[in-house]
Description:
102 residues, alpha+beta, 33% helix
Amino acid sequence: xxxxxxxxxxxxxxxxxxxxxxxxxxxxxxxxxxxxxxxxxxxxxxxxxxxxxxxxxxxxxxxxxxxxxxxxxxxxxxxxxxxxxxxxxxxxxxxxxxxxxx
Length: 102
């Protein structure tokens, strides 16, 4: 199992992305966390943006399809997509992710 992190410009966009990924069986659950502030360098300027964070739960064997699809449907030129393996957790929840993505 994996968690993918990605930001979006607003909740509406994150919600649309979440529905597409879940409908495509690339994610079992996506938490949308509003009101984060991102500070980053873009085109040699320091930028501050309000964004939302998506925590995307999926399976390792869907990782590349998840990345490819997220990059394709995301409105940013270079969307953040960071994958972290789930090394341990509640078996019931991890089994649910597994069965949700069959």
